[in-house]
Design goal:
about 250 residues, alpha/beta, six-stranded mixed β-sheet, four-stranded antiparallel β-sheet, 8 helices, about 30% helix, about 30% strand
């Protein structure tokens, strides 16, 4: 996925301007930045939810040429604001919520296929939420709902997965599970893009994109010392990076 000279708007205001990024195919890219940097707006532009000027292409084809349904088959999206109880009705079950991820693949008024049911079960099993399948979504805890919404994302079976704060409300064991899911998805050739505030998790990605004040601050390999220098600069020297085993951890300076 390539982004060229991108300007993103919320109403009349430009939130991001002159963004040029190459998202590596089949890899994990994390997006980092201070509050208000434009991270969520970038993902929303990539899924076609915000107005933008410039170019966003997949395999050389501009996403503007895709219908909304075809785009929804190719790009799955997890919104950070989705995990609120008020968004869901009293009776929508966990299973039906995850089945919503299959809508782009279903015809008008068609019943779910055997493949749809198989992928929904597979996604719920993968996110440790299968035992919740009959429960109303609104009655779940925040962490349980987050796992269900991740299952809905997986059920789409899209080539590109965009995730805004996917670790929100997850306890440490399920955060560790998330890293395993990432590895499994990349082994299937999926392209992953996550907005994360947890820098130690973000630096586990293959590729890092940094935004600040609506501009591209830096992009590069997560293991490159230049990336680490840029990250410290991004937060005005208020953090430092320390190596812990094979991982890098951000600590207050």
């Amino acid at each position: 996925m390539k982004i060229r000279q991108l300007t993103v708007f919320r109403g009349p205001c430009a939130i991001l301007s002159d963004i040029n990024i190459a998202i590596p195919q089949g890899k994990w890219t994390s997006i980092i930045g201070p509050n208000g940097a434009g991270k969520s707006s970038l993902l929303q532009a990539m899924i076609g939810l915000l107005k933008w000027d410039g170019s966003i292409t997949m395999n050389g084809v501009d996403i503007a040429w895709f219908t909304q349904k075809d785009l929804a088959k190719k790009i799955a999206w997890l919104d950070q604001s989705s995990n609120t109880a008020e968004e869901f009705g009293d009776s929508l079950s966990v299973y039906d919520t995850v089945m919503l991820g299959r809508l782009p693949h279903q015809g008008w008024l068609h019943l779910p296929s055997e493949t749809d049911h198989m992928l929904v079960e597979q996604a719920l099993q993968q996110t440790d939420a299968w035992h919740l399948r009959h429960r109303p979504l609104q009655q779940l805890s925040g962490g349980e709902r987050q796992r269900v919404l991740l299952a809905r994302l997986l059920a789409v079976d899209a080539d590109i997965l965009l995730m805004d704060e996917p670790l929100a409300n997850l306890d440490p064991p399920h955060q560790a599970d998330f890293l395993k899911w990432q590895g499994n998805l990349m082994a299937q050739g999926k392209t992953l893009v996550t907005v994360l505030h947890e820098i130690h998790f973000a630096l586990r990605a293959d590729h890092v994109v940094m935004l600040n004040r609506g501009k591209l601050h830096f992009e590069g390999s997560s293991r490159d010392p230049k990336t680490h220098q840029a990250l410290v600069l991004l937060f005005d020297g208020r953090i430092r990076l320390e190596k812990f085993g094979d991982d890098w951890v951000a600590l207050p300076n």
